[in-house]
Amino acid sequence: MGRHGRQAQSQNASIAENLASPYEISHSRSAVNVASWLERCARNRPRDPAIFHGSRRWCDHGGLAARVSALAAGLRGRLGVAPGDRVAIVMRNQPESLVAMYATWWAGAAAVPVNAKLHPREVAYILEDSGARAVVVSPDWEAGISEALVGMARPPEVLRSQDLERFASEGSAGPARASPEALAWLFYTSGTTGRPKGAMLSHRNLVQMTLGYYADVDAVRPDGRLLHAAPLSHGSGLYNFTHLARGAAQVVPESGGFDAAEVLELLEAHGHVSFFAAPTIVRRLAERARETGASAPGLQTLVYGGGPMYVAHVEDAMAVLGPRLAQIYGQGESPMTITALGRADHADRSHPRYFERLASVGRPQALVEVAVRDPDDQDLPAGEIGEICVRGDVVMSGYWGNPAASAEALRGGWLHTGDLGAFDTDGYLTLKDRSKDLIVSGGSNIYPREVEEVLLRHPAIAEASVVGRPDPEWGEVVVAFVVARGEPPAIASLDALCLEHIARFKRPKEYRFVERLPKNNYGKVVKTELRQVIAAAGDAALGSAP
Ligand code: AMP
Questions:
Q1: Ligand 1 pocket test, candidate residues 419, 432, 465, 525, most atoms within 8 A of CB
Q2: How far apart are CA 101 and CA 123, in angstroms?
Q3: How far is residue 394's CA from residue 402's CA, in Å, rounded to a whole number?
Q4: Which atom of ligand 1 is found nearest the CA of 327?
Q5: Which one, of 422, 418, 438, lies nearest residue 386 by Cα?
Q6: Contact indicator for 260, 292 with CB cutoff of 8 Å
Q7: CA pair distance 262, 253, nearest whole angstrom
Q8: Beta-bridge partner residues of 415
Q9: Fewer CB atoms inside 10 Å of the end CB: C or N, the chain?
Q10: Are the C-beta atoms of 480 and 455 separated by less than 8 Å?
Q11: Cα 329 to middle of ligand 1, angstroms
Q12: Is the separation of the CB atoms in 156 and 133 below 8 Å?
């Protein structure tokens, strides 16, 4: 072999070596601590706004990075917070909530954002389970946190949000280096069944989620705004990265929560605003806009998800807000990223399957594989209902301190979501209900969502939730809990509507008119409570029998 040949051979060998270790290459290239996005904003656009409190500019990127690095130094120096430690954040939405999160990542630690509406006992569980070294609380949690820490063997240090500035130390080093797999966010599931579990999300998972947003949900302009109208501990907070990575600003409402009038005012005051909201919030916002004739001029995109959105409600919202809606389907275990139904699908009224598409959760996002599987983990064809499974770099690595639950959820390398659904032949996924909500009557499956969609077509019905009641003859029968807009409509008119749209056996056998539906802190209807109401009524009836 001549010199040339040998050279070519050794060149090939080095290419092959590189190809043999693509994983190492990708490691070294994707080692981004999410806090480094803030550092870059401070360097590239120091005087551009970073956070607004309502319509007031609260700080620019340079100021935010200075606060964050000083607090990170305080966490490290005074509390000894080390990479890998957990810092819990129990705060209503306020600008300091973002400061606390970014400082945690800057210090190389993992954030445990906790919904501030939880009960102190529920917060205590999360603090203990996560082994948090410190907890940052907003002023409304002064008493609550003391209650939560009673009897705790190793209580975390408590930092009050109003003391953060004083707690900060000197030191303006950049963010700690974090490996892509390092834990960044411990996301506690809403726990509508059993104890919440901490889904472990790494820096890599969060980077992937952010890229997925740009690929499938929306573009973000550098002068755009992200409004936090929902708790920062959940979807709204996860989305901070979509704007941070682009150098855009975030808006924290002064009320610290959701207030429809305030949100509409902020949509007047700011331009190119996007935000994430649960379906109940979208409904309340649309109602308010309809009543007041507001047109939300500053709205770019309202992303909804986190629970079922009924077609009637999407249409109501688009009637006042325009086709500026997008939907995502995700869960803490695959944050914000399983499928998406974009603005174009919402706008495309001429499509023959427009309404079916609106009732779906859209198509798989670009960065994940999504499959519908049978109980033996075999893929099912379009049209058949099975469990939705997801695989991709956005998926959690497991549940904190719970290898058994992790192995179960991630068996075969796929996240088993616990959600049931079916693809159509165009690849749109429609969610059925979670398996525990399925009603089996006379041996046939009834998906409550289907019945709820029909009831919501009735103009006098604001909300509906359908559950099964045990029945000696049928196994279960359908009971509908209904919130009327004013006077309850005649049952006959609801019956007629059902008969027009769905099979006779799916019709509710009983209607219960209620003032409101029981919901958890994220606005999701808690069907277990509805079933308890039915069970209690059943016991009462048994008790009164002769
Ligand atoms: P969480 O982990 O608290 O965000 O809850 C995730 C669960 O909310 C999912 O497993 C679904 O059951 C439900 N969910 C999320 N997004 C949607 C959506 N777009 N439509 C219907 N249900 C949804």
A1: 419
A2: 17
A3: 19
A4: 19
A5: 422
A6: no
A7: 7
A8: 390
A9: C
A10: yes
A11: 6
A12: yes
